[in-house]
Write a structure and sequence with these properties.
alpha/beta, Helicase, Ruva Protein, domain 3, Phosphatidylinositol Transfer Protein Sec14p, 2 domains, five-stranded mixed beta sheet, 49% helix, CRAL-TRIO domain-containing protein
């Protein structure tokens, strides 16, 4: 395997483990990776709907890895992703870490990477739900925060390969945190973002979920596949969480050996400043949603018809 670049949380000692995950879980090997990248670039070149699209290795590997190097499926997901970006600009346009609202929720430590799990190689994202000011912000801001964090980290190969673990502390959340979600946003997020953003989400931990949130959680899970539901773990207390998550990872406030959330957030904010240009340049990509030559798009962006992506790929002559 090729040497991997540095990441936000270093992968010291994990190179062999990442190679093993790539080979066994993603079917990745050097020749297939090179052929798949070439095929995907040619598909992009031939696709009349894509007016501007990144074609660098890091970007295309997001989709190839999450689809285990099935080029037709990776192309389909790329179309879904670009379609979603233009359908929901309120979630995706100008993911600027210097934006006042995004900066405020970042500094409240509503969502911050806390480390890399040495056992799995996964990056761990920690969210404190009560810190999100649901009286001031709505679910659009919450989704934008999630997209900002994901986009900032998705070019890193370790994150593409090993995936993500999310931990949410729901203690102290209020009804406002539930009611700030409109049904349109909830359905759009669950049925579109989860299907269109190339993230390998391997574990979700929810801690201290209040009783009143049970029904909304049940509704959310109704959209999830059985595989995704199996990756969701609920813990009644922080003590239960500590039994499942390495103390080396958990922030100091949660009885772990890590730094405080404030220190972790300051490091992440510095990292985001270094990624600002790349994040804003994502807005330069464009797909023509009215062009009939490729995939048709239903009203629900989560139901992008695959014929355009797969059909165009099948026309290629790939050795």
């Amino acid at each position: 395997m090729a040497q991997r670049a540095e990441t936000f949380f270093p992968c010291d000692g994990l190179s062999g483990q990442l190679d093993q995950i790539a080979a066994t879980e993603l079917r990745e090997e050097d020749k297939l990776r090179d052929q798949s990248l070439a095929a995907m670039r040619e598909w992009i070149r031939q696709n009349g709907r894509l007016h501007r699209c990144r074609t660098d290795d890091r970007f295309l590997l997001r989709f190839l890895r999450v689809k285990k190097f099935s080029v037709p499926m990776a192309c389909e997901m790329l179309e879904r992703y670009l379609t979603m970006r233009q359908t929901y600009p309120r979630w995706f346009a100008r993911l600027d870490p210097e934006d006042a609202d995004l900066g405020a929720v970042l500094d409240a430590c509503c969502l911050v990477p806390i480390g890399r799990d040495p056992a799995s190689g996964r990056i761990v994202i920690f969210g404190v739900v009560r810190n999100f000011d649901a009286q001031r912000y709505n679910s659009d801001t919450m989704i934008r925060l999630n997209m900002l964090v994901a986009e900032a980290l998705l070019d890193e190969e370790a994150n593409q390969i090993a995936g993500f673990t999310h931990i949410f502390d729901n203690g102290g959340m209020t009804m406002a945190h539930v009611t700030c979600w409109t049904l349109d946003n909830l359905a759009g997020y669950l049925r579109s973002v989860i299907n269109c953003v190339p993230v390998r989400l391997k574990e979700n931990h929810f801690v201290s979920v209040p009783t009143f949130a049970a029904q909304i959680s049940k509704y959310c899970l109704s959209f999830a596949s059985e595989k995704l539901r199996a990756r969701i773990h609920c813990h009644s207390t922080v003590e239960e969480l500590r039994a499942q998550v390495s103390p080396e990872l958990l922030p100091l406030e949660y009885g772990g050996n890590g730094a405080t959330l404030k220190v972790l957030n300051e490091r992440f904010r510095e990292f985001l400043r270094s990624k600002r240009t790349a994040l804003l340049e994502l807005d330069e990509m464009e797909i023509d949603l009215k062009d009939p030559r490729e995939a048709a798009v239903h009203e629900d962006v989560g139901e992008v018809v695959a014929d355009g992506a797969v059909g165009s790929f099948r026309k290629l002559s790939i050795d």
